[in-house]
Amino acid sequence: MYRDIESVCARHGLNLCLAYGNVIGAMRHNGWIPWDDDLDIHMSREDYDLFLKKYAHELPPQYKVSSYLTEGGSYARFAKIIDTSTVHVPIGGEKTEDSGVFIDIFPIDNVPTGKFRNKLCRVWSLFMMYTATSVMQVEENSREWRDLMFSSKAGKANWRFRQAWGRVFSFASSRIWHRWIEQFAHNKKYTGMCHVMADLAVCYRQVPADFYFPFRQIDLPHIGKVYIPNKYDEYLSVSYGDWRKIPKDADKWHHYVRELFIPDEAE
Questions:
Q1: Residue 84 · residue 67 · CB < 8 Å
Q2: Is residue 155 a contact partner of residue 148, using CB atoms and an 8 Å limit?
Q3: Are the beta carbons of 258 and 144 closer than 8 angstroms?
């Protein structure tokens, strides 16, 4: 899937790079994190919007694009490219037409340099993101997710508060909230500082643009050439601290999947 997206972008001069744990995998494990199971991509806001508006239709026919620009909006606060020939249903989720293996694309936006304005924008963006996920929890009404959250006292309190919050703000669907989030993130004025609104660690924080740009190409065994953020050490340290240290088993992040089907290539 990554190579298919990369191929479309290369034809039109658009740039992308690996993001988050995939960068840790590249630089710490010389490939992928052994216990990781997904792939994330960064693009500049300009390239991200061009890709979604003009070129995403050039992807192979089994791929579906879910973004704030597609009909109905996205069910996430960033774009997803979904392989509809597969099935991927997470714990707490319901099987739908969007239940396929996916890649997330996170746009990098310019961020204002004013401290007071940034604080206000951060509070508002966190409100919008919390509201969107709470509304989505109400919409899904998943018994499995409820039972999982009720396995701890803190989880039970969290679930109940989100249910109440989500009902209050369900005058708009979660997809509409996600569209509003994407639109709010846009900032055309270049300031030399960037952020990724969907990343709570850097949301409306001033991160130097050269942490990201220009993307740096590396060559990984068994994987080949890929791009990563320019100053990958600084980039990873912002979100993960000491990213070179292998976490304890209890601290390793996992996604929990209820159903997974990936057809053989011959099929």
A1: no
A2: yes
A3: yes
Hey, how many other C-beta atoms are within 10 angstroms of the C-beta on 204? Answer: 20
Answer whether 0.85 is exceeded by the pTM. yes
Distance CA 37, CA 135 (A): 26
Distance CA 54, CA 202 (A): 28
Amino acid present at 231:
K
Q: What is the mean pLDDT of the chain?
A: 92
Rounded CA separation 17/40 (Å): 9
What does the pLDDT look like over 32-45, one tens digit per residue?
999 988 899 999 99
Q: How far apart are CA 107 and CA 90, in angstroms?
A: 24
185 vs 204: CA distance, rounded Å = 9
C-alpha–C-alpha distance, residues 88 and 193, integer Å: 36
List pLDDT tens digits, range 104-131: 999 999 999 899 999 999 999 999 999 9
**What residues contact residue 119 under an 8 Å CB cut-off, 6+ apart?**
204
Strand partners, 218: 226
Q: How confident is the model at residue 9 (pLDDT cuts 50, 70, 90)?
A: very high
Q: Return d(Cα 228, Cα 218) in angstroms, integer.
A: 7
**CB crowding 132-154: b at 16 or more within 10 Å, else e:** bbbbbbbebebeebbeebeeeee
Read off the tokens for 251: 């601290």
| DSSP β-ladder status, 40-44 and 101-110 | parallel
Q: What are phi and psi of 46, to 5 degrees?
A: -60, -50
What is the enclosing helix (H) or strand (E) of 147? helix 143-149
**Cis peptide, bond prior to residue 214, ω within 30 of zero:** yes
Q: Looking at this protein, which amino acid is placed at residue 185?
A: A
Q: What is the pairing mode between strands 79-83 and 87-90?
A: unpaired
